[in-house]
Structure prediction request, 328 residues.
Amino acid sequence: ALVSMRQLLDHAAELSYGLPAFNVNNMEQVKAIMDAARATRSPVILQGSAGARKYAGEAFLRHLIAAAVEAYPEIPVVMHQDHGASPAVCMGAIKSGFSSVMMDGSLKEDGKTPADYDYNAAVTAKVVELAHAVGVSVEGELGCLGSLETGKGEAEDGHGAEGALDHDKLLTDPEEAAQFVKATQCDALAIAIGTSHGAYKFTRKPTGDILAIDRVKAIHQRIPTTHLVMHGSSSVPQELLEEIRTYGGDIPETYGVPVEEIQEGIRYGVRKVNIDTDIRLAMTAGMRRVGAKNKSEFDPRKFLAAAMEEAKKVCINRFEAFGAAGKA
Ligand code: G3H
Ligand code: 13P
Ligand code: NA
Ligand code: ZN
Prediction:
């Protein structure tokens, strides 16, 4: 059944687990995630980014998720719009049937320029007011996703008059978070702790100086009842990088967010964990393996079946590691 984000996150908080939120762009990703959810009896958050809407189109995305709800009737599913750039984008998603939206007011409408607190609070509060009137949940974001290694926010170069942004500018401030949640009444809050989107998050296995899990604790202490969201939370498994390289790919050395660090976050209020890149890597590994091992293969289903199998394994692992297994 289609459920609201709030229902799932409240349940996750009550039982102290976390939910992976997987990005979807096509049928194979939806099926792999749903098969993993069925195998582990986990509730599911499927989310579509602006990039997904551009790739598949709004109608396909919506109907793919509706198909998942129909084909897996025992699994609660949230249809979530990821990184909405404006109230208008969020309203469009709500109208088309999404049960949850993210209003990302940490950036201006261009999706690139960092926005100030007042703009962010105003657009987020507006979306919350409209969304709550029709039972839709809202995720807000406060802080600037980006690297503590380079001091660069991911959406801009991070260079002001004094050079790279310092740690405190890249991380979400607990006091400001409290103010933001009170002002907007958002259902979940995405925070910045040194992660960024994509495969190239860290040049080494992250330690506390570049991945600020302690900041999760500080924010949770200040707003213990707020559901926290970690973006950029792919773990970038080294085995998948190896597999891709073995079968002809060329991905340079890079590191993601270790599953143990996410588990630590979940102990301190993280309830939604956004994952896109790991599924991309898994599918690429599967497709490259088939292509490399069977050069005469030309049925796309053979490539995509292997892609789904690899993606399903990653999803099962995250449902289990975050404690969502058995909670559907
Ligand atoms: O928000 C980031 C997600 O990984 C979506 O990426 O814009 O390439 O679909 P995308
Ligand atoms: P990854 O690129 O780490 O998978 O993050 C995805 C994300 O945060 C989507 O909003
Ligand atoms: Na999101
Ligand atoms: Zn994100």
User: Anything to note?
Assistant: The CA atoms of residues 23 and 47 lie 5 Å apart.
